[in-house]
Amino acid sequence: MNLNRRNYPPEHGIRIPFGDLKKLLVTLFESVNTSSEDANLLASILTRNNQRCLYSHGTGQVPYYLQRIKDGDVNPRPNVTVVQEAAASIVMDGDGGLGYFPCYHGTMKAIEKAKQGGIAAVTTRNHQHVGSAGNYTRLALEHDCIGISASSHRTHLNPDSLIFSVVDSSPSSIAVPAGEQPPLVMDMGGGLVRFEEELFERIPTTYFKVMAFTAAVRALAGVFPGIYRQEFVDSPWEANQGAFIAIVDVAHFMPLEELKSEMDRFIAEARATQPLPGMETAELAGGNEWTWAKDNEKNGIPMSDDHVIQLQDEADKLGVETPFAKFEHTRF
User: Fold this and answer.
1) How many domains does the chain have?
2) How far is CA 39 from CA 35, 100, 192, 275, 316, in A?
3) Residue range(s) defining the domain that contains residue 37
4) What does pTM read for this prediction?
């Protein structure tokens, strides 16, 4: 079975402390005219994902973001604003920048509102990539809330293509807190299965479910936030993405400790079962990342040579000094 698309700790490389890697990313983004506040937020999120070994949505995105900013496609200094607000809802405008900023600030506002009323939601628009949908559901966990998030980007379906082309990479995440066990964090892209006619004939129901799921995500996180409005289509920036994020404060529905206890029981039962073929342990979504993060908080973030070379290349282009040489002694 091919598991190569999953994120795993590298087998060989060096370990970088969280603070040193974050400082490098801050400097890289500041070098392309990102504000210090935004650079610090973005660097924190990306470094934290590396700490979980989610490299694809950690430093793996850095070259893309830097290039988009340098090419003038992404606003390096967006003025993120609240354009509409009520007791349990917020609409955020990203001003053509990366989607991390309206999504992060919108999520924090939604958490505040959910603490008051039980549930709150935010939509975001007029921005570029939001990164991992789990960035925002994990914020909910930090505040003993359930988080639901999804994102979509603006595309149009070709009438000459199969309807299955509705399936794209639109990500979604659901996170539920636990106590002693790893929290449940579903965090995935929408490309769940490729279309193959022979496979479709064998498991058609799977394909219909994938199409239904992706269409729902695209509607909720793209159409609903308004990314197809002409004013955003005509933006001078590549402002082609939107997001929907909902926060549920557990305490408004049941005692928090009761949920955590029941989630611990459920997750512990799952972890006591037999792993899937090719897997070393039985883990629910988010379990591996939780374990890796705990280890890497103590020992430093493992960085493969490929990841180091990638960041070194970007630093060289911008004349930024890197910390990698001083951690050669951590090589494994």
Assistant:
1) 2
2) 6, 11, 32, 40, 19
3) 7-71+300-332
4) 0.95
**Co-location of 122 and 149 in the same domain:** yes
CATH code, domain carrying 40: 1.10.1530.10
Per-residue pLDDT tens over the stretch 126-151: 999 999 999 999 999 999 999 999 99
Q: Which residues pair with 249 in a beta bridge?
A: 145
pLDDT single digits (tens) 223-254? 999 999 999 999 999 999 999 999 999 999 99
Could you give the CA distance from residue 113 to residue 274 in angstroms, rounded to a whole number?
41
Question: What is the C-alpha to C-alpha distance for residues 247 and 141, in angstroms, rounded to an integer?
Answer: 10
Question: DSSP secondary structure string, 231-257?
Answer: HHHT-SS---EEEEEEEEEGGGTS-HH
1 domain residue, yes or no: no
Structure token digits, residue 83: 């354009």
327 plus 261 within the same structural domain: no
Residue 151 DSSP SS3: strand
Whether residue 329 is found in the same domain as residue 274: no
Pair (236, 103) in one structural domain: yes
21/7: higher pLDDT: 21
Compute the distance between CA of residue 71 and CA of residue 67 in angstroms, rounded to an integer. 6
